Write a sequence for this structure.
């Protein structure tokens, strides 16, 4: 089978250059490649294209740093079914569910054929989140526990249904969709590129920089923009600052859940220091407004660069002390070790990404496997990988990544000062986009692999934007993690993943 082969640094691809193959050939080829752990799917979706439906797949070759793109088509009103790839490769489960939910296309033999997001414009208008078909089990010793969708505290809604034997969890099913806002459709409804950039950074509030970077990268490929090194450095700085802030916050949240107040208070203070550093740079603690296509409205100067470098060094020093305390706390170790384990084989099967996957021995990190910008030049990233796959492993990956990000920021700020502080290009909202083309932004955010695919029409307007937040795959990892555990351990398992409801729902 023929693929269009590109990488994470290349320009947009003309739609006519993406091969179209029969589904049988597509199925056989993808089935073979996904049996090799070096491959995984970044995105797979369907789009109406005239009187037909076009399916597009972005397959990542993690060994050769390649992105393989191919497609297959069917008549728009064809009521036939396609053999399900999910039956053999569960990592494709959310993609096939999404296609079915949007367009009514059926996949024969697909397990767990249930709604994914409950979009307002879904194919089956009778499908409602109020009648979600939860899985049930019969047995005298079994009982169900419902949690949500409204939770204690100011967090997003999601429904969790546990099937338990006493205190032991046998099965957890997670129903999402309460946060579906139709973000992807909004990218199409407006031609205002500033508004589109604002939409991107609003997809998941704690990943504003990651999503804004992914969208900006896709747009810049459609304009064939060439960014100066200084701007690439500043974008990498923003990504690593966001990573530090969120990983520190998760460390504190996990400490709080087991009553380790020293770790909680220390991390809350360090997280505040980190996001205040971001605010001092761009005026927003979460980096909103910082990432814009083609340029920046908040270029660094010598004073701000030195402030970032100084603050991050101090944060890393203090956080390292917290990390040593965490590793030597018997009560914390007793709760975290051998709790919520997801083996490497299962994580590969479901397509897990981010620090959750790396904690289970899956060496999957776009900064190393599909580098872009500074990660392809100045920074040579080495993923941090643990093998245990439990809550403690996920915490330790976070701890190490905070210190790793601090070291990256030290390198980046030094280089930024070295090349000087000349004028950087301002944000570009007017350069025409390449017509009838596809571009993608692939970014390793703090939660994991973030993907934006932008497709233009004949006039160069955005005809479709398809977004994948890393939570899309990792919710299933959470469901697997709690099997066999006591239901009282669910909060710490949940916190150890810290997934995004709105990032999943879009």
């Amino acid at each position: 089978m023929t693929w269009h082969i590109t990488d994470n640094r290349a320009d947009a691809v003309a739609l006519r250059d993406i091969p179209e193959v029969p589904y049988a050939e597509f199925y056989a080829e993808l089935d073979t490649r996904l049996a090799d752990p070096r491959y995984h799917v970044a995105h797979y979706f369907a789009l109406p294209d005239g009187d037909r439906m076009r399916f597009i797949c972005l397959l990542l070759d993690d060994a050769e740093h390649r992105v393989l793109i191919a497609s297959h088509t069917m008549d728009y009103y064809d009521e036939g079914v396609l053999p399900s790839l999910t039956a053999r490769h569960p990592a494709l489960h959310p993609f096939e569910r999404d296609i079915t939910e949007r367009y009514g296309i059926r996949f024969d033999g697909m397990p767990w054929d249930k709604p994914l997001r409950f979009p307002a414009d879904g194919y089956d208008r009778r499908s409602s989140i109020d009648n979600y078909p939860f899985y049930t089990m019969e047995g005298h010793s079994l009982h169900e526990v419902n949690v949500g969708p409204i939770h204690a505290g100011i967090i997003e809604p999601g429904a969790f249904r546990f099937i338990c034997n006493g205190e032991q969890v046998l099965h957890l099913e997670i129903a999402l969709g309460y946060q579906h806002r139709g973000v992807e459709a909004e990218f199409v409804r407006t031609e205002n590129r500033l508004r589109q950039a604002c939409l991107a950074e609003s997809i998941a509030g704690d990943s504003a920089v990651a999503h804004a970077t992914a969208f900006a990268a896709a747009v810049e490929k459609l304009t064939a923009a060439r960014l100066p090194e200084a701007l690439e450095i500043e974008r990498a700085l923003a990504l690593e600052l966001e990573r530090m802030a969120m990983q520190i916050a998760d460390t504190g949240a996990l400490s709080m859940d087991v009553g380790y107040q020293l770790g909680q208070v220390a991390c809350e203070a360090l997280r505040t220091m980190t996001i205040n550093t971001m605010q001092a740079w761009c005026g927003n603690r979460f980096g909103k407004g910082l990432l814009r296509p083609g340029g920046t409205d908040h270029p660094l100067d010598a004073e701000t660069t030195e402030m970032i470098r100084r603050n991050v060094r101090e944060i890393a020093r203090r956080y390292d002390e917290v990390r040593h305390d965490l590793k030597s706390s018997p009560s914390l170790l007793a709760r975290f070790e051998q709790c919520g384990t997801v083996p490497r084989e299962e994580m590969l099967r479901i397509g897990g990404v981010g620090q959750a996957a790396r904690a289970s021995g899956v060496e999957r990190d776009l900064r190393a496997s599909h580098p872009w910008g500074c990660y392809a030049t100045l920074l040579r990233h080495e993923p941090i990988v643990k093998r245990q796959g439990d809550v403690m492993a996920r915490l330790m990956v976070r701890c190490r990544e905070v210190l790793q990000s601090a070291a990256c920021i030290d390198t980046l700020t030094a280089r930024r000062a070295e090349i000087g502080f000349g004028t950087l290009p301002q944000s570009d909202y007017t350069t025409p986009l390449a017509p009838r083309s596809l571009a993608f932004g692939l970014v390793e955010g703090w939660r994991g692999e973030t993907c934006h695919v932008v497709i233009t029409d004949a006039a160069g307007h955005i005809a479709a934007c398809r977004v994948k937040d890393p939570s899309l795959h990792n919710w299933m990892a959470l469901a697997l993690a709690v099997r066999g555990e006591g239901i009282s351990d669910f909060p710490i398992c949940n916190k150890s993943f810290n997934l995004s409801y709105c990032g999943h729902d879009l």
User: Anything to note?
Assistant: DSSP finds 16 helices and 13 strands in the chain. The mean pLDDT is 94. The domain at 183-505 is CATH 1.10.645.10 (Cytochrome-c3 Hydrogenase; chain B). The two ends are 33 Å apart (CA to CA).
